[in-house]
Design the sequence.
């Protein structure tokens, strides 16, 4: 019996043994590490280091520190700032040619000079391989040539407005690294696939940081680039670093744990939108600050305008009138977002038009029903039981009939599932209830996101849906390809099948208008038309909440789409360094 | 001779079953709603670019042709290239599999050893207070909701007390330091392993304990146990040499299959602990319609489970001489 007890004692101590061993091992191997490395939490592993394959947010976050474009956006005005380029491009209309001058002292991270040849190579690579996401932005480029080591001439097929915001935003890659890869891909049967699937283990870049190490599934480490061209220089009125020794991207699969890591000081930034539910505990944590930024995002309800009943703009307007966006923002988004009425988000100050039709804005619930009822009645819609009784009181509407006398068939409002996006799923449920008040037989149907996209984009098999774009470009060209008739095709971006010759005319004009002021007028008009015809009903723009440690680094630069931008990473300083710098300045004064 | 014939027959069955699984998997993924391209595209990609990508991935060909390519590649030892990572799936799996084996196989082995050991002792001491408390404890552990327990462990032992790292498999600070030797790196991995291992151990040991205890209780009523005692053999000898080996048979099946399925990892555990294993990749591949990666993961699980089944069946013959192979 004694033996049994001793066995039991031994055995039940196992977990304690494991703990003791690991704590000992921790004390044996724990090192504080370099305090001047910015630690960033990511929600998922980056996909690749191949810039042409990287389409996911996390790869872009890493690679944007390595590969650089010719121009950047100013964080406040969103105006273009020459980055690899020395100045804004000059355009000669007679020759249809842009001339881009490059900075002279730019070097790749391996010490090779960055020249016009690299820019030419990048352009030809994008065009030759038709690289997705970039080729469409370069399709109007007829010829690209290097005039000298630091000057590039780009002849275009026809004038187009997105030269700077589209074509010039492509990352420039080093010809001396990519030429051999491109030649190998050129000889293969599937040349694009070969190029995209080429594994890049040591990317050579020109950015503030240079790739150092990637432990798959664990972390990516970038070191400060000692050859960074903008180091200690003033660009856009800012003296740039980088002042940190490196960036360490750690992967956390759940927000719960990432938030704990931030509170514990394991990371300095969780580079991912945080749900408002975490704010309370973050606000209570000392040395943690939450930034709220606007997003270049659009969350909207779309209609299938190809077929009845939503081919009728009056019905779409009535639906728009019934939907209380303020309620969605206040209750579902818990106030962290803004109501959207125009397709272009309000944070995009250059292109956002405030003067659009705001259906039912500010009306009470009953007034919304009354106004929608009035709209539909005037257009010939009838009810078995109308939502507004003879005495003028609101009642539950039933049996809505179309102007041709047919009863309105039951239809689905497709949304992503709650585990993918609870806000959209809940908005769908609310909208279902609001439309039913008017007697519309609608069913909110959350479904698998892949199936949802296939139904809407490829098969056009839907009546209404709620979708969103979380990362819209800052150039409003998407307005054109979301609603132009030519894009009403399977996999085309005109998912609603919207067709309006007037809009098409403006869209074509917006593409080629080189005068920014004139183009702004056209874009404004396009937003007004969409707000009136409602092929998409913009719902909300969710606020972007990002949390950082304030006891480690300071100098974050807020911007649309958050504080995780090149300006921030080039200006951040360790708190003690920043304090020293300011005291030195004070002494100097 | 009989055993050899049995093994040959089972191997032939395994080949056929594997081929069926492979075919079903191939068509199941392609018939499922959603497609990989729709998830890849963003507003900056035109339909023409999307079409080019589809053709480059070979998804524009008829299903029969795609299947023929798939089979051809399989027999050449190629499992294709992941749509998402652009890397050969074999490379992705070989990167992730050791991590999963390290965590889950260790967890199964540790919890099985502990569970069997304790189950044996508790059955021997049936009715004691210790038996009651441990049985209740095992039942409670077995029914715990894993993500909840995992988060609780992280919060308590890693965040509040600070004994363990929050998640992950390694501390970057150690791995990026060129001065760190392999001992420091190994200890670091061990340190990261402890918390998920402890969590899995708590969840799993209960089931082995209960199986062993129940099997042992049945065995203890057998005549040969009475005979052993009548012969005057020491109690510990009767328990360990006569009762336990016979009671262990159901546990062998359970452990064998658990070991096989352990390469599947656990999506929930790996996600909560940010453990870079197969389970997370599998879920990611399925939800993003990354056909080659998902197929390869499932095929790997299928083949390991089929072989583990065969091994368990053969082992039975050795453990219980009454079993005959026909």
Sequence:
């Amino acid at each position: 019996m004694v033996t049994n007890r001793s066995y039991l004692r031994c055995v039940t101590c196992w977990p304690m043994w494991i703990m003791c061993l690991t704590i000992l091992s921790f004390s044996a191997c724990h090192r504080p590490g370099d305090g001047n490395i910015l630690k960033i939490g990511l929600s998922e592993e980056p996909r690749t280091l191949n810039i042409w394959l990287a389409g996911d947010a996390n790869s872009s976050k890493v690679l944007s520190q390595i590969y650089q474009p010719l121009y950047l956006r100013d964080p406040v005005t969103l105006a273009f700032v020459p980055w690899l380029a020395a100045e804004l491009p000059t355009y000669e209309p007679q020759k249809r040619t842009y001339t881009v001058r490059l900075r002279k002292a730019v070097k790749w991270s391996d010490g090779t000079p960055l020249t016009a040849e690299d820019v030419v190579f990048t352009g030809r690579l994008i065009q030759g391989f038709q690289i997705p996401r970039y080729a469409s932005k370069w399709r109007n480029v007829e010829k690209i040539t290097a005039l000298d080591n630091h000057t590039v001439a780009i002849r275009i097929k026809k004038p187009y407005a997105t030269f700077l915001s589209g074509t010039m935003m492509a990352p420039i890659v080093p010809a001396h690294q990519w030429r051999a890869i491109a030649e190998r891909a050129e000889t293969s049967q599937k040349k694009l696939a070969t190029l995209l699937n080429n594994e890049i283990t040591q990317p050579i870049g020109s950015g503030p940081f240079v790739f150092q190490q990637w432990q798959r599934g664990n972390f990516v480490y970038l070191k400060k680039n000692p050859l960074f061209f903008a180091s200690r220089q003033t660009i856009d009125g800012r003296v740039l670093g980088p002042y940190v020794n490196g960036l360490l991207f750690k992967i956390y699969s759940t927000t719960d744990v990432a938030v704990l890591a931030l509170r514990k000081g394991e990371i300095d930034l969780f580079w991912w939108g945080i749900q408002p539910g975490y704010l309370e505990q973050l606000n209570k944590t000392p040395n943690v600050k939450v930034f709220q930024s606007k997003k270049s995002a659009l969350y909207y309800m779309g209609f299938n305008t190809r077929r009845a009943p939503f081919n009728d703009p009056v019905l779409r307007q009535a639906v728009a009138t019934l939907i209380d966006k303020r309620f969605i923002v206040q209750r579902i988004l818990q106030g962290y977002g803004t109501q959207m009425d125009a397709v272009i988000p309000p944070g995009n100050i250059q292109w956002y038009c405030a003067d659009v039709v705001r259906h039912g804005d500010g009306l009470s619930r009953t007034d919304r029903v009354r106004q929608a009822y009035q709209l539909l009645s005037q257009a010939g819609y009838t009810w078995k039981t109308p939502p507004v009784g003879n005495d003028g009181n609101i009642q539950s509407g039933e049996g809505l009939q179309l102007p041709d006398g047919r009863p309105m068939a039951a239809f689905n409002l497709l949304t992503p599932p709650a585990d993918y996006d609870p806000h959209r799923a809940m908005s769908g449920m609310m909208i279902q209830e609001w439309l039913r008040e008017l007697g519309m037989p609608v069913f909110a149907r959350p479904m698998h996101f892949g199936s949802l996209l296939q139904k809407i984009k490829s098969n056009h098999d839907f009546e209404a849906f709620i979708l969103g774009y979380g990362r819209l470009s800052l150039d409003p060209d998407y307005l054109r390809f979301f609603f132009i008739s030519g894009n009403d095709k399977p996999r085309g971006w005109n998912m609603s099948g919207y067709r309006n010759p007037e809009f098409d005319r403006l869209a074509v004009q917006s593409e080629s208008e080189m005068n920014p002021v004139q183009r702004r007028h056209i874009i404004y008009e396009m937003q007004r038309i969409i707000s009136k015809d409602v092929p998409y009903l913009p719902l909300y723009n969710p606020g972007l909440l990002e949390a950082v440690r304030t006891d480690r680094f300071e100098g974050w630069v807020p911007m649309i789409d958050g504080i995780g931008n090149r300006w921030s990473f080039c200006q951040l300083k360790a708190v003690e360094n920043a304090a020293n710098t300011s005291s030195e300045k004070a002494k100097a004064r | 001779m009989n055993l050899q014939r049995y093994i040959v027959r089972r191997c032939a069955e395994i080949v056929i079953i594997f081929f069926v699984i492979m075919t079903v998997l191939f068509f199941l993924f392609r018939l499922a709603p959603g497609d990989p391209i729709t998830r890849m595209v963003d507003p900056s990609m035109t339909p023409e670019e999307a079409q080019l990508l589809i053709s480059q991935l070979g998804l524009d060909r008829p299903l029969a042709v795609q299947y023929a390519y798939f089979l051809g590649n399989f027999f050449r030892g190629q499992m294709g290239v992941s749509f998402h990572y652009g890397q050969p799936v074999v490379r992705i799996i070989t990167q992730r599999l050791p991590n999963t084996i390290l965590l889950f196989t260790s967890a199964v082995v540790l919890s099985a050893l502990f569970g069997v050991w304790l189950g044996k002792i508790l059955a021997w001491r049936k009715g004691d207070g210790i038996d009651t408390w441990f049985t209740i404890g095992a039942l409670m552990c077995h029914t715990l909701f894993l993500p909840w327990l995992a988060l609780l462990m992280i919060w308590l032992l890693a965040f509040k007390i600070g004994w363990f790292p929050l998640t992950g498999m390694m501390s970057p600070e150690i791995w990026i330091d060129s001065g760190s030797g392999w001992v420091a790196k190994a200890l670091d991995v061990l340190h990261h392993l402890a918390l998920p291992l402890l969590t899995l151990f708590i969840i799993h040991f209960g089931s082995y304990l209960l199986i062993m205890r129940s099997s042992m209780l049945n065995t203890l009523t057998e005549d040969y146990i009475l005979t052993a005692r009548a012969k005057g053999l020491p109690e510990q000898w009767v328990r360990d040499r006569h009762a336990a080996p016979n009671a262990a048979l159901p546990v062998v099946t359970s452990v064998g299959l658990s070991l096989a399925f352990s390469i599947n990892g656990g999506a929930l555990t790996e996600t909560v602990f940010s453990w870079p294993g197969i389970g997370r990749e599998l879920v990611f591949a399925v939800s993003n319609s990354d056909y080659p990666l998902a197929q390869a993961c499932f095929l790997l699980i299928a083949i390991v489970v089929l072989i583990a089944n065969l091994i368990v069946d053969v082992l039975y013959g050795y453990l219980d001489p009454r079993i005959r192979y026909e």
